[in-house]
Amino acid sequence: MKSIRKFLEWSLAAAFIFAIVFWGNSYRYFIYALVCSSLLYLLLQKLILSKVANRYGRVEVRCDVNGKRMTTQGGKRIVFVVLLAAVYALTISVFSVSPSLERKEFALTHPSWAATAPYIINFETKIHRGKTKYTYVDIEYRYAANGQLYSRKLDKAEKHYAFLPIMSRRRFEEMRAELFDRVNRKIADKEYVLFYNPQNPEQQTFFLADDSFYLEGSMLYDILFFYSSLFLIIVIIALLFRKDYNNRMKKFNSTIHYYRRTDYYENR
Predict the structure, then answer these.
(1) CA–CA distance, 198 with 154 (Å, rounded to integer)
(2) Strand 133-145, strand 148-161: pairing
(3) CA gap 212, 92 in Å, rounded
(4) Which of the two residues, 109 and 22, has the higher pLDDT score?
(5) For 34-50, what is each residue's pLDDT tens digit?
(6) Contact criterion met (CB below 8 Å) for 238 and 231
(7) Which residues pair with 138 in a beta bridge?
């Protein structure tokens, strides 16, 4: 029974990691994060070892986790996993807010792929009204490769998120108009580019923009409001608890001082 439970736990953890790493992101970002976190871990190994040893003891951890004793080796693994998660989150955040960096990374990792400027047939901006509210653009284009013409329609080629929760239809239309103007400018300036595999021209990746920084195009822009609001609430609660704690400590200290003075006069 224990082995089955352990297998299910590890399967669930593996599925969660797979979804986070590969769903909507390139597997290469995880490799970059793994390399960077490994280098950081090696550079900070002495500091990490000293912290783990101070907390858990030189040989064994003095507390139990899920009924099992942990060693300092287990503590080091936890530190590395936390470091890897932090570096990976930072990596995907940086790439998501920089279309130019994302384009350059793809060109460097696909040197054999050819770059071309396709002909834009049509594009349409739409509104997504789900839990995550944003506007997006669908682009239809045509390109020539190896003497043949290929046509593609790319759904959600670019998204435009909102920092504040959107409730009105008017604001949705404003966002759609903003995205329409942006896409129109990018097409007029011929900023877009298509990379395709000469060995298999149907394998292709389209990049609309080349901005160094475009926060509105990242889902990070949408969740910043939630996290900033959550952080503000935590800070307010912490300040209230601290004020209440200080008031209680003042009252407690004044009571002790009163009793001490009373005892002093009674002894006299």
Answers:
(1) 20
(2) antiparallel
(3) 15
(4) 109
(5) 999 999 888 887 776 66
(6) no
(7) 124
